[in-house]
Hints:
The chain is globular, with a radius of gyration of 17 Å. The longest helix has 22 residues, at 69-90. It has one domain: Phosphatase 2c, domain 1 (4-Layer Sandwich), CATH 3.60.40.10. Helix 1 runs antiparallel to helix 2 (69-90). It contains 7 helices and 11 strands. The strands form 2 sheets. Strands 2, 3, 4, 5, 6 and 9 form a 6-stranded antiparallel beta sheet that branches. It is an alpha+beta fold.
Amino acid sequence: MxxxxxxxxxxxxxxxxxxxxxxDKPVGALPNLxxxxxxxxxxxxxxxxxxxxxxxxxxxxxxxxxxxxxxxLKRAMIYANNEIYKMASxxxxxxxxxxxxxxxxxxxxxxxxxxxxxxxxxxxxxxIKQITMDHSLVEEMIRSGELERKKGRNHPEKNIITxxxxxxxxVIPDFFEVEIHPGEKxxxxxxxxxxxxxxxxxxxxxxxxxxxxxxxxALIDRANxxxxxxxxxxxxxxx
Length: 239
């Protein structure tokens, strides 16, 4: 697999609370690893939470004796969640800190995905498909039929997250498994991209560019063009 990742503060924020990790080489028993995390909980706590989530998860994976990719991601994320929760409980300055996380591993022709929160993973071929499901109030309203999906993007409660790493003592990720097709690309991103750029436009940018660096740069540029109201992070994966 090949990958490229970029993160940007955006136009409105003074600091970047997103963190990313992308590695095409083995990380412990995993042949590769890709992560985007979007922190929350105040100026200092948000970036601390997202960085902790990635660093603790990657260290856990490097030391793990497990072999199943879903089991490895699950244990790593549960452990990282617990460590963030304990840190926030001890330090008043970090109270309420948390982070989203979406993580992926490509292995034996399949992509294994785990997520907590509203950072997303998309697959892109001729069309674009969101693989993960947001843990957000708006997504719950859409699933229950209270809200049309097309109206969700501008809903006033769009940013209310219903599940985040560090917010509770125990949080279980959702898991997804998809087949990797020739020429298919995958995008991990924070909501700084998905809230600003429509899915179809994301697809067009990815299809119209060949180099992964160019794709990442173009996605961030487009989110900033539309206002860049949040931090923007992307990781692009290709065969």
